[in-house]
Specification:
Helix 1 runs antiparallel to helix 2. The longest helix has about 40 residues. The mean pLDDT is about 90. The chain is rod-shaped. It has one domain: Helix Hairpins (Orthogonal Bundle), CATH 1.10.287. It is built from 2 helices and no strands. With about 70 residues, it is mainly alpha-helical. This is Exodeoxyribonuclease 7 small subunit. One of its GO terms (cellular component) is cytosol. Heterooligomer composed of large and small subunits. Keywords: Coiled coil, Cytoplasm, Exonuclease, Hydrolase, Nuclease. It is an enzyme of class 3 (hydrolase).
Length: about 70
Amino acid sequence: MSNSERLSFEQALSKLEDVVNKLEDESISLDKSIDLYEKGIELSDFCTQTLENAELRIKKVAEKQANNNENE
């Protein structure tokens, strides 16, 4: 995904769902299927990275909160 294409997680997930639906259409050409597959991989990687980053942020907040509770 290009840097100029700034999507939210929800937008990327929606686009990924669109790609999957299009890939299920048996009437599309092989070339179009390959293009869609590549786009789907990019979107999937973006969604995975976004979720991993969110998980790290949540862990940091939880650790900070736990440390604050220990110091009280």
